[in-house]
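Minutes, project huddle
Topic: does the predicted pose make sense with zinc ion bound?
PN asked that the exact inputs be recorded in the minutes so nobody has to dig through chat later. Recorded below.
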Amino acid sequence: MEINISLLKKICETPGTSGFENRIRALIKKEVEPLVDECRIDTMGNLIAIKKAKKANSKKLMLAAHMDEIGFITNYIDKDGFIRFNTIGGFDPKTLTAQRVIVHGKKDLIGIMGCKPIHMMSAEETKKLPEIKDYFIDLGMSKEEVEKYVSIGDPITRERNLIELGDCISSKSMDNRISVFILIETLRLLKEVPYDLYAVFTVQEEVGIRGAHLATHEINPEFGIAIDVTIAYDTPGAQEQEKIIKLGQGVAIKIMDKCTICDYRMISYLKSIAKNNNIPYQLDVRNVGGTDAEALQLMGKSGAITGAISIPTRYIHQVVETIHKSDLSNTIALTKQAIENIANYSWEHI
Ligand SMILES: [Zn+2]
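Predicted holo structure (tokens), as shared on screen:
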């Protein structure tokens, strides 16, 4: 499958931390509007794209891919013009060292994530892991100049371009823009759908799966599938038993994480679809993390038969999140087949 790298690059590089998804939402809306029957935005900002089944009063299948990314928010500008911030989403503090960010004030401003130079640290300090509070953002401007453009509450995102390397692609915010891309490309490939398809690009997942709660509650689907990244810890230092998911070994079908035990029927359905279509897959069992699947399973009036399709990703929540091109194609293939065959499966409890 030919990968539309320039679209993926735009999707990854467009800013949109949780609660400030305006720009990424506008880009997705432009892409999906021609591919669906209806496209709307709910109160919280979830983008809901609907493709109708031929039959009226069809059952509903909801797919969710969160469009927000981890980031920061301005909470103080000091007398020398340095910006202090809160984090939005989960950061490993050491990954902030030597990074560039973009402060989204009246205009976008590149900033440096500054911290104390090693030469000035005591022997004690050099042994300690950095904390978020050790960092500040330097715009290279005086306080007066900074305040012309930046206000308290302005969002900040990480600055990093998408690159191809070997058979892989690396960028900031692969979590979860790769799944946004997968959902868009799946919509592009679909012709008819057996059940009404709700492709939802959710907001505020990184701060607690918030957008998906509202969207699922309102849509009330019978079936739910979340699309997100999963941890590929297949790098030096990993124990054999930690290499559950490996890059380039196929799409990951979630069994459980900290927030969800996927419906056993959805797990066997996704496995059978993968087998029947010769799509390589890996099974993902963890006791950490969570995805929009949590909301999909719980927030409809009667709940939904829910699972999750994940794309293996190295270095999650760093600016160099990396995926394998073959996993990308396999994830799109499984997502498409899972949508098209959903009416041909017995969903009764056994
Ligand atoms: Zn995610």
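Observations noted during the meeting:
- The chain has nine helices and 17 strands.
- The CA atoms of residues 127 and 149 lie 37 Å apart.
No decisions taken; revisit at the next huddle.
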